[in-house]
Amino acid sequence: MLRKRENDVYRVENKYNCSESELRTLQNRLEGVLRADSNESHPEGYGITSLYFDDLQDTCLYDTEDGVEIRDKYRIRIYNSSLDVIKLEVKSKKDGYIYKKSKTITKEQADKLIHGECIEDSVSMEDPATLFNLAIRTRGLRPKVIVAYERKAYVFGPGNTRITLDRNVRADDHVEDFGKENVSYEFLHEYDKVLEVKYDEFIPDFLLQLLELGNMQQTSYSKYQLCRELF
To answer: How far is CA 193 from each of CA 75, 142, 151, rounded to the nearest angstrom?
Structure first.
């Protein structure tokens, strides 16, 4: 059953570590059935680059490793290596469900956060800037790792379903290079491909059938954790 907290809606998020052949099979199945995500600018999808933050105790990392039921991740995200649109996000997980607070910020605001400085916020706990500022002041929140990959995404209205196929997951710990060209990434190799399935109250049965490959197993795959462990 979908979990709610006041006006917040926690979505289901299931992840599956895949091979390239499995992703290609799924992509061929979904291509003629679902529409592409609005962010897509190329037939093969679009690029995502995220800068993840953590506190002085690496709470986000250790909570993920330990499977803590209620935990948060803090990140800044851009698309196709462009700084034209910068998203500030706090992603919360509770009992296997997720809820994301997101807003667009300027490059100047992103630079401030990267250097451990607070930015303007609305003094609302629904504002990710408020949550970032609070974590900076009380826990020493700082950038830790850059995570990049290519995403092919499909959406379906009923159930607010979103299916994403991510490839070439890679990382760099030189956080000052976020948004720059020619970043020296290290690849995850055998863990560099993942299928993510997200939905609200239900997912249509025909989509479950399209996603059935017989040998895929659900995993607690975390890009942030795996990329931090590279370094």
So the answer is: 20, 27, 10
Residue type present at position 217: Q
Give the closest residue to 229 by CA, choosing from 54, 98, 70, 18.
54
Of the CA atoms within 13 Å of residue 190, those in its CB half-sphere come to 0
Single-letter amino acid, residue 180: K
Q: CA geometry: angle at 17 spanning 14 and 22, to 5°?
A: 105
Per the DSSP assignment, residues forming a β-bridge with 218 are: 16
Query: Can you give the pLDDT at residue 1?
Result: 42
**Residue 95's closest CA among 113, 71, 79, 127?**
71
Distance of alpha carbon 102 from alpha carbon 126, whole angstroms: 9
Mark out the alpha helices in the chain (DSSP H runs): 20-31, 59-66, 107-114, 128-139, 205-210, 223-229
Task: For the chain, give the percent of residues with pLDDT over 90.
Answer: 84
pTM summary value? 0.94
Closest to 167 (Cα-Cα) out of 13, 4, 48, 35: 48
> What integer pLDDT is reported at residue 215 of this predicted model?
80
Distance of alpha carbon 121 from alpha carbon 151, whole angstroms: 30
